[in-house]
Amino acid sequence: MRKRPSHLRSLFSLLIFGIVATLLIFAGADSLCRFDISRRLPYYPNAQLIKSETDSFRLRALGRSEMVFETSDDEQTVAEWYRNLNLEQIDKGLLRGLADIQRYFESDEKGKMLIYYRTSCGL
User: How far is CA 26 from the centre of its chain?
Assistant: First the structure.
């Protein structure tokens, strides 16, 4: 005669299944957010990262992130690069996505350009 599995073992199996499913969903959402942000917000060429913050496990993924870059390029060069990026993204239809993306730039007191990236992604 076969023994029936105990209720404790069934509950434990259900708990393990729930944890694994949650981790898989989180990893999938994180990957989707990272892909969307990387596709729509490329790094400015030759800019150096000087500050970064995130409320999640990694930058430019699930959650909120803020990054500040510094470049010696002048404002006109930076503005032209972003203008060309915007036109390219319009042509490719990449204006909307999963993540909320903000970018702006300003010059600092040393004459260098600071480029700010803010992203927020959640399902």
Answer: 14
The beta strands (E) that lie in 12-98 are given as 48-54, 63-71
| pTM metric for this prediction | 0.78
Q: Which residue has 């599995």 as its token pair?
A: 5
**48: β partners:** 70
Task: Specify the pLDDT at position 123.
Answer: 66
- For the chain, report the end-to-end CA distance as a whole number of angstroms: 49
Q: Check pLDDT > 60 for residue 1.
A: no
The structural domains of the chain, with segments of one domain joined by +, span 7-121
Q: Distance between CA atoms of 82 and 111, rounded to whole angstroms? A: 19
User: Environment class of residue 32 by beta-carbon count within 10 Å: exposed (0-12), middle (13-18) or buried (19+)?
Assistant: middle
Cβ-contact 54, 65 below 8 angstroms: yes
With vertex at residue 77, the alpha carbon angle to CA 37 and CA 50, rounded to the nearest 5 degrees, is 55
**What digits encode the pLDDT tens for the residues 97-111?**
888 999 999 998 888
Radius of gyration of the chain (CA): 22
